[in-house]
Amino acid sequence: MRIKVEPRADPTWKLTLAVTVFSALIALPIIAVIFWGFQVNPIEAYSVIFEGAFGDWYGFSETLTKAIPLMLCAIGLSVAFQTGFYNIGAEGQLLMGAIFSTYVALQWGELPSIIIIPLMLVAGFIGGGLWGLIPTYLRVRFETNEVITTLMMNYIASKTLEFLVYGPWKGADEWGFPYTSKFNVNTWIPTWGFTRIHTPTLVFAVLSGIALFFVLTRTKIGFETRIVGKNPEAARYLGISYQRIFMIVMLISGGLAGIAGFGEVAGIQHRLRPGISPGYGFTAIIVAWLGRLHPISTMLVAVLFGGLLVGGEMLQIRLGLPAATIQLFNGVFLLTILSGEYLLRNKIIIEREARQ
Amino acid sequence: MTLIEMTGISKYFPPEITALENVDFEAEPGEIHCLLGENGAGKTTLMNILYGIYKADTGTILFDGAEVEINSPRDAINLKIGMVHQHFRLVKRHTVAENIALGLKCINSLFPLPEVRTLIKQVSERYGLSVDPDAYIWELSVGEQQRVEIIKVLCRDIKVLILDEPTSILTPQETETLFKALQLMKQEGIAIIFITHKLDEVMTFSDKVTVLRKGRKVDTVDTGSVDKRGLAKLMVGRDVLFRVEKSEACPVELVLEIEELHALNDSGLRALNGLSLSLCGGEILGVAGVSGNGQRELVEIITGLRKKTGGEVKIGGTDVSGYKPGKIAEIGVAHIPEDRIHKGSVPDMRVQDNLMLRDYKQYSKGFLLGSDAMRSQSTEMVKEYNIDTPSLDTPIKLLSGGNIQKVILARELHGSPSLIIASHPTYGLDVGATEQIRTTLLGQRDKGAGVLLISEDLDEILDLSDRVVVIYEGRIMGEVTPETDVSEIGLLMSGGSL
What we know:
The structure holds 2 protein chains of 2 kinds.
Chain A (H helix, E strand, L loop, with lengths): L1 E6 L5 H25 L4 H14 L1 H26 L7 H19 L4 H30 L3 H21 L32 H20 L1 H11 L1 H7 L3 H28 L10 H11 L4 H25 L5 H21 E6 L5
Antiparallel strand pairs in A: 1-2
Helix pairs in contact in A: 1-13, 2-3, 2-12, 3-7, 3-10, 3-11, 3-12, 4-5, 4-6, 4-10, 4-11, 5-6, 5-10, 7-8, 7-12, 8-9, 8-10, 11-12, 11-13
Chain B lengths: L3 E10 L3 E11 L4 E5 L6 H8 L7 E6 L2 E3 L4 H6 L2 E4 L11 H6 L11 H15 L14 H13 L5 E5 L7 H16 L3 E6 L2 H7 L2 E6 L2 E7 L5 H9 L17 E11 L5 E11 L3 E5 L6 H8 L7 E6 L2 E2 L5 H6 L2 E4 L14 H5 L15 H14 L16 H13 L5 E5 L7 H16 L3 E5 L3 H7 L2 E6 L2 E6 L5 H8 L5
Parallel strand pairs in B: 3-8, 3-9, 6-7, 7-8, 13-18, 13-19, 16-17, 17-18
Antiparallel strand pairs in B: 1-2, 1-4, 4-5, 9-10, 11-12, 11-14, 14-15, 19-20
Helix pairs in contact in B: 13-14
């Protein structure tokens, strides 16, 4: 028996789905080894994760809560990646969105909800969008590598946030904690029942995913975006300005991440403080790839990863595992998914021994 | 003794493409064996199987009498098989020597460059293929890049050399040099497999020829026993025209005027030095010349892709300085680019999308794409241009070169352009597609369009053009009629004067 590898013409969507699911499943036994290392039965660990995230209504509501920022960041990233702009800066764009929203909340927080919440959303979009546009401008003007610049911008955003909450924006009644004052209750995004799901943000996220899918497939600008992503040289020849497309795409990608930041401060924390995001912007990179850069499937994957975050907390509480366990999950998933790409691009043929 | 024996080779690309069906092929040492066929006939696929890029679905390969498994180019290289691809595989930002050092095993792997330089020198002297080892690939013309590819293969000790349409980008002089080198290799006992669709080449220097048509082998014959017309018939399965029928041109008003044009190339060196020409509607102006003499820069300036440093370009009487490529297209300029895969199409997108790369704006309402209108327009284009595709939704990369070029033509010529810039429009295409594309260009001329035809294929220029100018070092050396003797044009192309 021999094994042969050769390039494949074009994977069908069924194959893509099968390979993606298979790659994700392959990650499980690998992670099991780590559980064993902690002397935890992997099957028990997996059931703790699953039950914690999807087993009851409370767990599932937490899963959805965490899926909101993942979804917003990941659908923006999926479009940026498809266009060939490798935005690693969703985390920083999220934080900037949170900062801009916070400014609006602290300034005009007593305005009625119907005005102040949309204002904060717009501010979040602008903050994240601008933060995304800076590295984009550097790319189109000076050909800097956006992977580096977007990554660095994350640290600038996070330090800016710390500067603000330790310094000028530090709340008077916060016992010296690096928090802003609690926002006026008018700025709080309504939640669903007794859960922490800030419904309007969730609805906004789902609608923007659907809208982006529609824009990509059915509109002129979407057509141009796909051309730039698939063959930049042809775009130049056709007179489609990739500079313009990059700026638009990154305004949206950064803006959506910024809205995720708005959701966290206005929907969950009701104040600005360090650690509002446990790395949503980074996890969203994996979510986008696992969703095959398709805005719709990306949203579903975001829910799964929201579940993983909740399940990870359960691992800490119920089994006493370190918080970083879940980061391991993410890392192993990314590895297996990217390895799965190989199966999509190549055919593996197993052959019987050639007859003599 | 037979060196290579491929038997019963079949290759399918699911779902619907049969690339090869039960093909036999043999090659012997010290023999130049041409593989002749139209585009999509399966020539390149067959050789990709021999070189280990594809795996045949059925069939066996014997090498030196023993059955071999060639699963990757590495296996092929170990068997001393070398291949020069039609689309080069060079790292553009590296130098010639660095490119050649990649993948060479027999040398010092830490500091290979001095040794590689010596090796390059030896090989280029031995076969008369000169190249500067320290030039960057992006500085070189296509002809020179090809020379690098050939030297890269020759630096290994090889028994079999496969060349995929090597002459389609060469000048007559460069072709001559290549043929001389091939004769030397032949005398050294190398088996040379030469993929081509140029009958003249087959006739002048090959020993044997195998003709493929639509994935099947038609015949293998000794070159001495056939004539050109016979081969052409084997190749396309019918008699073909060798010269397109052409009526007298009736030039009308000027569509393109270029005065004293100056420009730099990508390396910042002077590429155009005061070039002037003019073109009327209703005529075809051929620009003959060796590649790298400013043709690319000329085309890029006319189509708005490059900035000029001096001079004037007028299209239809309007100065187009500062016009962007999109604007140039809007005022009725069609551009058939030299690189149909990297520039002219988006390989991953569907045939329909590729047909609509220009017209999508016109078929849209507001932000929305007019899907129905685009669909019906595309269907018509496929019919009108006789594009052979399984469906409008097939990714264009699955089509053959000829059909990709027809898609580009259909797209660019839609809406009756007044000026057509055609760079190497039939480069690498088979007789059938070439004939169709030439006829289409002549048809556009007769409808009143001005055609600027840039090509290194002198026969094509002479066949199609009403007037011919020769470009050399960024200047026009002179204007001749298409009836002029080829040797005189060759003289102008190499910088001489009449």
